[in-house]
Design brief:
Strand content: 5-15%
Shape: elongated
Largest sheet: 6 strands, mixed
Strand order of the largest sheet: 1-4-5-6-8-7
CATH topology of the largest domain: Restriction Endonuclease
């Protein structure tokens, strides 16, 4: 507020703004002015975005970004829909602007929206998942293609040495390398809390995403029946781990020792006492 404004002028301006609330159908800018002088306007309706000009949409986009001010005047709009409206109006329609203030608002809104859109796209494409659900989906994709990668490594140029998947340690080494392609914080073999007097070691902890990845490989003495027992014990252990919200159990079964891998997955893939468990068997020979 202008510091030289005397009391008489302030009262006159307040009276004008009070009368303006009833006379202006789109009074969000008037509401801002009223708020600055201590007059409260009530937003009786949400602006219809499709009826507004590009300058008005840009003004609303700026207002929504001023969180406290928007709250004070009761302005509630979906920011994503508003941004889409600005881009749609600005890029798909002919627009003419001869007002410097309007032009400044339009420039601010379009630059801000384009920059945020580009940044969001980069983060989604290149950065590691930021939540458990997205991380679990990516780990599943890695496990689903594990056998393809393992087979590809057996055929090297000029018969050079390679990694051969012969036991569980080999599975862990290759799976760990694949996880590090997509996640920046992969912690191997973290100790889990003891269960029944015994401590266990998890294969990989994706701490920011709160996902644990266990790798197993079938062998003589570790077929489907034994796997069910091991996995049940693992589930009980991880239920008490503070950094584990999702447990992904990857079972590598190249020789087909699982008699019904789909049943194994379906029976154990569910929520177990607050711990989301996902069991993946690959390859599925039956």
């Amino acid at each position: 507020m202008c510091p030289t404004l005397n009391d008489s002028d302030q009262q006159w301006l307040k009276a004008v703004l009070n009368e303006g609330e009833a006379q202006l159908p789109e009074h969000y800018l008037g509401a801002v002015s009223a708020n600055q002088i201590g007059v409260t306007w009530t937003m009786h309706s949400t602006p219809r975005l499709q009826d507004l000009s590009l300058a008005s949409l840009s003004l609303l986009y700026w207002l929504i970004g001023q969180r406290a001010l928007a709250t004070n005047i009761g302005l509630t709009l979906n920011e994503q829909e508003l941004a889409a409206g600005v881009l749609r109006m600005g890029l798909l329609n002919q627009n003419y602007c001869d007002d410097l203030a309007d032009a400044g608002l339009i420039l601010y809104a379009t630059e801000s929206i384009v920059e945020r859109t580009i940044q969001a796209s980069i983060e989604e494409t290149w950065k590691a998942p930021r939540n458990t659900e997205a991380a679990a989906a990516l780990v599943r994709a890695i496990c689903d293609r594990f056998n393809i990668v393992a087979n590809a490594l057996t055929e090297r140029h000029d018969k050079r040495a390679t990694i051969s998947i012969t036991d569980e340690y080999d599975v862990q080494d290759l799976l760990g390398a694949l996880l590090k392609l997509h996640f920046t914080d992969v912690r191997p073999e973290e100790w889990t809390p003891s269960y029944g007097g015994n401590a266990s070691r998890m294969d990989f902890l994706l701490k920011p995403e709160q996902v644990v990845v266990e790798a197993k490989m079938t062998r003589k003495g570790l077929a489907q029946k034994e796997l069910v027992t091991q996995l049940a014990e693992d589930i009980l252990r991880y239920q008490s781990h503070q950094d584990c919200k999702t447990l992904i159990c990857f079972v590598y079964d190249p020789t087909g020792k699982c008699t019904n891998p789909t049943a194994l997955e379906n029976d154990l893939t569910k929520n177990h006492g607050g711990l989301q468990v996902v069991v993946i068997v690959q390859p599925k020979s039956r």
